[in-house]
Write a structure and sequence with these properties.
single chain; 136 residues; two-stranded antiparallel sheet; alpha+beta; two-stranded antiparallel ribbon
Length: 136
């Protein structure tokens, strides 16, 4: 079913929750079709998330301070890299990133039958909150 979802909801809520669900052990009674729907949804989300992350990286590189070779300046803090911005471009980055997160994407995600989550060990309200749009 095609649904419109913002990139922010997709990458921050649905994707992490579906990844967590995919690691849980479902009772034997849960049909294989349920597992296939989760897998198909993950594949669709990965495609959309790639567009989001590629666009995010493009904006980061475009707005970052450049070195003498025209490459973005990056600082490493606790093994995490961080692009450097001028004060003006940091403000622009924040605006553009929020716009990207709020951009709607049409994605084909299949509904999950909530009955199949009964008795699943490790399922939490936080996980279910992340996928509530997919539950029927």
């Amino acid at each position: 079913m095609a649904m419109k979802i913002t990139y922010g909801v997709l990458v921050n809520d649905i994707n992490p929750s579906l990844l967590e669900i995919s690691k849980l052990g479902f009772p034997v009674k849960v049909p294989i079709a349920h597992h296939l729907i989760i897998a198909e949804n993950l594949i669709e989300i990965e495609k959309a998330a790639k567009i989001f992350w590629d666009t995010r990286t493009k904006i980061l590189k475009e707005l970052s301070i450049k070195d003498e070779n025209g490459e973005p300046k990056v600082s490493i803090i606790n093994e995490a890299s961080s692009y450097k911005f001028s004060d003006e471009n940091l403000i622009i980055w924040n605006v553009k990133f929020r716009e990207l997160e709020n951009e709607e994407v049409e994605i084909n995600l299949k509904k999950l039958d909530k009955i199949n989550f009964e008795g699943v060990e490790g399922i939490t309200p936080a996980i279910l909150k992340g996928i509530y749009r997919l539950l029927q």
